[in-house]
Amino acid sequence: MNKKIKITTLLLCSIWASVFAQERWTLDECVAYALEHNLQLNDFKYTNQSNKETYRQSVRNLLPSVNASSSYLVNYGRAEDPNTGTFVNQDFYSNNYSLESSIDLFQGFQKINAIKASKLLFKATEEEVLQQKYLLAFRVMQAFYDIQFFEGLVEISKEQLTVSQTNYNLVEKQVELGLKAGADLYEAESLLLTDKLNVTQSANQLASAKLTLIQEMNLENTSEIEIAKELPEVGVAEIEMKSDSVYTEAREFLPLIKAQEFRAKAAKKQVAVSRGRLYPSLSFFAGIGTGYFETTRDTLGKTLPFRQQFRDNTSQYIGVNLSVPISNGWSARSQVKQSKIEKLRAENNLKTQEQELFQTIQQLVQDYNSLLVELVQSNQKMEAQNLAFTIAQKRYEKGLINALELFTAKNLYASAQNENLQVKLRSEINKSTLDFYRGLPVFNITAP
Questions:
Q1: CA-CA-CA-CA torsion for 116, 117, 118, 123, nearest 10 degrees?
Q2: Residue 333 exposed, middle or buried by CB count within 10 Å (0-12, 13-18, 19+)
């Protein structure tokens, strides 16, 4: 019975593995899976959750503080009698109980500014989580299109191998009939082996590209993945794009820029927090206390019971505390200077991010315009090389050219196919990237 169960389990696992292996992933599915399972992204989420709690606590810091305390004290030898205030040579014990509450009335607006700063930092990490999602999506997209490229390269290599195999078979028959010399067969075999090696190398590159996508997605328990076969339809209509207009659109929504803006504003609030330490602080406090003393006795010399002492010894108090900073080793003013430097650093980082964004968009727009021309020329080149190869193949079959000339024509056609495939995929990645910077919904990603 156990053997049957094991066999059934193995069959079910095999069927499941076969179904999983045959599943074809679309780009959107790959991105969605990666966003859900990427471990590095989780680290940014944890940072955001930590900043959220820091912000909430900064708000709770406005609430009054309440503290209760209790003590048990045993005195030996000469000690002050807490009941009479005189010193006696007697061993005795006492209990003290107190409840105190205090609230800050003024601290140079430190807490208010700290709330604003922590809220801005929380928003900054929210944007950084979103930015990491976009970066992950772009890495997945690049790996996805790399697989499409190498799949196309494998198909091209197999087509070339089929041609070489056909030519080898033809030459072999011609040698058997005495129409060609044995050296021609060696040349055909050399070309055949070269194309077999190209197929193997392309397959290895494809396997490496699949592994990259699997790792980006954090896809476990598999070393194989199948993606949708459709190559993107790349348009060649000349749509004029300008760097300035794309940058203006990207500047308004890009999470990386918004995060740095929040950090710059938070740094400004931190300066205000540091300045608040230079001002006097005022707090209000109130409390209640009581105690039990072994030395508190009645007229008969008996220690009064705990309940009576607890009631009779109760006292209440209220007060205000004013603290004026006079000299603290210049540390408060030094902290203000440090905060100002951090503010300048944050503002400089924002300008740096804006500059890098503009330069990136400049390069993308230039590539976009170049690729439009390259795509037209690449299509024309591939058609011309295809025609040239077709003619060379017919001439080779009639014995008008040798194997080396045919090999050259075949390689030129394969190279043209390769270049055309590269241009198509580069155009698609470039277009998707520019669409993203223009604020178009390239990925189905929402803010955390």
A1: 90
A2: middle
Q: Quickly count helices (H) and strands (E) in the chain.
A: 10, 8
Q: Which residues pair with 97 in a beta bridge?
A: 70, 290
Rounded to the nearest 10°, the torsion over CA 325, 330, 334, 337 is 70
Burial class of residue 5 (count of CB atoms within 10 Å of its CB; 0-12, 13-18, 19+): exposed
Q: Which residue has the tokens 């803010």?
A: 447
Alpha-carbon distance of 296 to 306, in angstroms, equals: 10
> How far apart, in Å, are the Cα atoms of 440 and each of 187, 193, 443?
54, 48, 9
Quick: pLDDT tens for 121-166: 999 999 999 999 999 999 999 999 999 889 988 988 888 888 888 8
Give pLDDT tens digits for 280-310.
999 999 999 998 887 777 777 787 888 888 8
Strands 24-25 and 226-227: parallel
pLDDT at 17 over 60: no
Task: Give the span between the Cα atoms of 52 and 59, in whole angstroms.
Answer: 11
CATH class held by domain 21-63+107-279+325-437: mainly alpha
- Listed in sequence order, the DSSP H helices in 177-225 are 182-217
**C-alpha to C-alpha distance for 446 and 35, rounded to whole angstroms:** 11
Q: Smallest Cα–Cα separation from 254: which of 424, 407, 131?
A: 131
Q: List Cα–Cα distances, 338 to 19, 93, 275, in angstroms.
A: 61, 52, 11
Q: What is the pLDDT of residues 30-44, one digit of tens each?
A: 999 999 999 889 999
The CA-based dihedral angle spanning residues 335, 340, 345, 349, taken in that order and rounded to the nearest 10 degrees: 130
User: 379 near 424, Cβ under 8 Å?
Assistant: no
Residues paired with residue 79 on neighbouring β-strands, in sequence order:
88
